[in-house]
Amino acid sequence: MTETVVSEVLSEVRGQVGFITLNRPRALNALSLGMVRDLMGILLAWQNDARVLAVAIRGSNKEGPFGAFCAGGDIRFLHQAGSQGNPQLEDFFTEEYALNHLIHNYAKPYIAFMDGIVMGGGMGISQGAALRVVTERTKMAMPETAIGLFPDVGGGYFLSRCPGRVGEWLALTGDTIGAGDAIDSQLADGCLPADQQAAVWDALATQTFASGAAIKDYVASKFIAIESMLSGAKGQIDQYFALPTVGEIVSALESADSDWAHATAATLRKRSPLMLNVVLEQIRRARGMGLADDLRMERDMVRHCFYLRPGQSETVEGIRALAVDKDHAPKWNPARIEDVTPEMVAPFFASPWPAHSHPLAALV
């Protein structure tokens, strides 16, 4: 008996819309290299297809569509490839970042239904959308510092553009936010009740629209108001995460007279001390960069995360502790925030390629 191989990316054109469903529910639709390539191919084809006025993308869970958007990149693959020198590791990041760039610059409205978990690489394929739709079930985060990585996939670009110092807070802590906070942080455009997603999705296939903009407006017309929980912490976020260094941020949080500050400091103490410092530098550099330059910087950084310190990759160690051995006891090097020096951070921002040979040289 032959086993049917089901595609991890389903696509079809119905009516005037191109529909994409991420179909790897057991892995919470974590992106593999094959999925990145499929998405790129589909979007490039539809960009020049006159039948397609707009694109809609969603995830799936074990029960069917919606419920989980995308939990990020396939970190088990990254661990295996990073440990064994698999050249597909390089391809994965180059092609993933090129896909992120295409979505941000897509010629037609791209509408992301960000239900359930939207993290890491899932943010990369949704933050560039013309319309970013969340639901009351959305759990959004860039949790990379927990695995000794940094918020990539354009994270420097979109987090640095959040109001105040919310970008630094989200990037350093990896904290999870819901729909109201995502909208408040300018990481989503509106909330659609989860139980109305299927009806809206199907309506896009059956109604006639005058333009791509009309399709986008139709979805936005279904948005409901939802409260943000962040408002109470905003002042504290801006106060602490504007400080010049990670050491000063943590010291101030630990000295504060607030449960929120102490919990936040405790979270930061669990993250990779080196990568916290790298990430703070990344977000602050990215504020002054366009998307293409930010993605080139992140491509440099991710190369260094795996190869700058042979046998001592914070990323390989972080993934090992979280997802491979699952001992949740990463051995960070250096172990303490106070032991990180500027000389350890600077090499992450030196490109390993001359400009003309950069893997993302073509992005504009």
UniProtKB/TrEMBL annotation:
Residues of the Enoyl-CoA hydratase/isomerase domain: 17-349
Record carries keyword Heme: no
Residues in coiled coil: none
One function term, GO molecular function aspect: 3-hydroxyisobutyryl-CoA hydrolase activity
Gene3D superfamilies given in the database record: 2-enoyl-CoA Hydratase, Chain A, domain 1
Any Gene Ontology biological process: L-valine catabolic process
Top-level taxon of origin: Bacteria
The UniProt record lists the keyword Hydrolase: yes
Family annotation (InterPro entries): ClpP/crotonase-like_dom_sf, ECH_dom, HIBYL-CoA-H
Keywords per UniProt: Hydrolase
Name of this chain's protein: 3-hydroxyisobutyryl-CoA hydrolase
Organism: Acidovorax kalamii
